PDZ domain-containing protein
Amino acid sequence: MAMHQTMEGIEPPSINNSIGASPRSKCDTQGKAVGRGKSYRRKSSREHRESSAPSSNMLAAAQPPVVLSPLSSRTAVDAEKESIFCLKREIKALTMALRTLNKHTKEWVMINSRLEIAKEELEAVLEDVNLTRSYSDRSKREDSFSSKEENDVLDRSAGLIQHVPTPPLSAKQQFRCHNSAPTQTGLLDGDIIAASLPPPPLLDEIEDDVQNLKVELDKTEPFSLEYFQIKKKIKALTKRSSSSSPPHGIESPNQRTNQRQCSDRSEDTFGGRLLVVPVDTSYADDVVAVAKSIPPQSSPRSSPQSQAMHSIQNLTELLDVVPKYSLEWFQLKKDIKATLLQPNRRLSSASLSSSTSTELSPIPLNRSRSSDYSIGSDSEHRLLSHFHPPSLKAAERSHFCNKSVIVLQSYVRRRRCRSSFVSLKSAAISAQAFVRMIFQREQYRQIIINTIAIQCFVKRWLVRRHNDRDRAFLNVQHQIEEMKIEKLSMEMKLFELQKEVGIMKNAKLRRELSQIKDEVIAIKAQQPSDPKHGIPQRGLFTVLLDRPGTLGMELEHHKNSKGTAIVNLVVPNSQADLAGLMVADIICNFRSSSGHELRYDQFITMAKAGIRPLVFDVRRA
């Protein structure tokens, strides 16, 4: 411990608060050792700040350095681990109890406040552990210095720790003891700052928190407010765990710029620029082979195009790291798209205008809707008719490549399918890259052959893949239309048949009714008078009822007359029917065998009583 022997006259950097003996850790270890009973009360955040903040008298008085033995330091580390374990267990128990209660009740508010205090205490203990580890690592590194260097380092490190304010427990994580803080004399050197940086947070603890949050997320109702809050916490912890690797030094912006420029100069090749172009996998091998076969250009200064393509490569690497479909992901995609369009604009104004009269317009992002263009053998013959590799001069070769790129761009503009549009766009970008290299290198024949191979492959692929699908789709559409028309015709035929059946049924019923009527009329006309009783068919006749209990008829009495009624019903084979009585006959007189006349009600009463014989006169029109 030669380090502490050289610290006489120098105030130590609050060892009690940094090496496992902070008020928070003491309180936690004592509370866990005795046992948390009902009489135990946890300190609030204000009490923690007041107890941890040293008074002015204590700072004024010079304190002797405190040297901890290995046994005491080991005990402090064990106490810290025990306090962290107990706090985590308490937080887990309070969280489980909080789920079983209804929100915004008295018990829920009390347990929620206790849970927040426990979380704040856990953060404070973890902060003390980080400070302890950073101080111990710094002390181990300082043991190898000389005595003079040790004094300087201790002065600076002591000032660094003394001037770091203790944030409140409710402060955010970004305000809690970050990498370093300025001292009175300014920033420290790079090595001392790297030594004074706190170690990364405990990855195991962060992973445990993430696992607990995932378990809680499974139990939460999907797409609720708590569901999105837990998702946000999981995302924050994941970012924290990914960014928790300890930095080894601080790099200035100028150094980063110099390194990027050096890497641009060292990696400025056509192959590096071409590999970032999104070429389709079906013909990527040919394009990469052509790109690798071209030797790099030996230029002392990197061109703007090489810088742009190098930035595209860096953005592509960042795009693989960033979570997909996040805000940063879309921003990187937008930057890559903007950087891709910049070399086309510079090239169209500078190099191509001096070499050839035909300019290469950048491929538009929108697709044309003109459908009067078809890929066939005519366009292939027109494209291949310009190809004469042995006898072409430089101007003719450049004109041919420009024309082939324009033809390929026309394919891109006139195709409707989205997948083919993307692949053709990448092929056109590759062809434009080939044409740019024509004006700087002399490998015309190989570039022209590969460009034509790409164009022919794209045309065959489109004809084989998309046209067959279009034909099959159109055939299915025609079949569906024919089935619809057939269905409508069948429905019309069914309606007509139903109509004809109804007409036939109505005609048959009418014929049957007319036949029945004719038969009834004929029967009535041919019906003779009954010779048995000698009762005429028409006129006035008398009926004698010798069995009054079996009349076999229903009468309707006229209210205005005493002895008049109308026959409504005659039961077949009854006494009235055998007497010749018919429906609608008028009974004009009721009387008894004695000869005096009766009223209708008297006649009915005597008939029900069984008095006989009874006589009534019938008149028929």
Notes: The chain has 23 helices and six strands. The two ends are 150 Å apart (CA to CA).
